[in-house]
Design goal:
There is one protein chain. The chain is 32% helix and 25% strand. The chain is α/β, with parallel strands linked by helices and 235 residues long. The protein has one domain (8-232): P-loop containing nucleotide triphosphate hydrolases (Rossmann fold, 3-Layer(aba) Sandwich).
Length: 235
């Protein structure tokens, strides 16, 4: 639950803070959702880089890209993740989605966040992470109900620990109504930002579909991925 007397956390993305009146509420959990190639991972890296610049300890959990690939993706925008990792300000955790159940459970995930004293957390993507994580570390059912329960449990931990988290989610191509893979994630997070691309024209749009406690513009805005990261057009 977001407090009425909350402060706002900058996403570090030109234009979007203006749309949100300064940023997202501290201690909130926000889903960034979209199809393949729409800029989700760049968004997450930019959010983490903003926290690092502000001296915050950050955790980046990846189930798709390697640590080396994330660092390479970041450095092309001038974000030196390696420097912060060596200073123990950035913790990059890479998991094979087919092995995560044997490596981490909800309890150990919670303890790890507490141990490093993370202020910002990113999970890329939440669907894969939640699919293999439970309180026991292993869920043999692997059914849709178990996945939804996993998503809810992960988000509950993030809220309990009062971190400010941004999660990536996938929108299945052709889906008209779902804002995420299972249509569940958008209901348990505090905010939803949808990124889209228009095939053939190279146009990208961003829309803030939901943000609790904040008055915001629901109108889709064009954005570009420049050599300094994502820039959202607010006019």
């Amino acid at each position: 639950m977001v407090s009425k007397d909350f402060k706002k956390i900058s996403l570090g993305i030109a234009g979007i803070n203006k749309l949100l009146g300064g940023g997202i509420p501290e201690n909130s959990v926000v889903l960034v959702s979209g199809g393949a190639g729409c800029g989700k991972t760049t968004f997450l890296c930019q959010y983490i880089n903003e926290g690092l610049k502000r001296g915050e300890t950050c955790l980046f959990v990846s189930l798709e890209e390697s640590k080396e690939q994330i660092k390479q993706d970041a450095i092309q925008f001038g974000w030196d993740f390696d420097k912060y990792e060596k200073k123990d300000k950035l913790y990059l955790k890479q998991y094979n989605p087919f092995e995560v159940s044997s490596n981490i459970g909800l309890n150990s995930f919670e303890r790890y966040i507490e141990y490093i004293k993370a202020k910002r957390v990113v999970i890329d993507p939440i669907t894969l992470f939640a699919e293999f994580i439970t309180n026991e570390g292993v869920d043999d059912k692997r059914g849709e109900y178990a996945i939804r329960r996993g998503i809810f449990n992960v988000i509950s931990i993030l809220k309990k620990l009062n971190v400010t988290a941004v999660l990536s989610g996938e929108i299945i191509e052709g889906s008209k109504y779902k804002l995420s893979k299972y249509g569940e994630e958008e209901f348990v997070v505090d905010g939803v930002i949808v990124l889209t691309t228009m095939d053939g024209v190279g146009k990208r749009t961003l829309c803030i579909k939901k943000m609790r406690s904040i008055k915001h513009d629901f109108t889709p805005k064009n954005f570009k991925i420049t050599d300094k990261g994502i820039v959202v057009e607010t006019e």
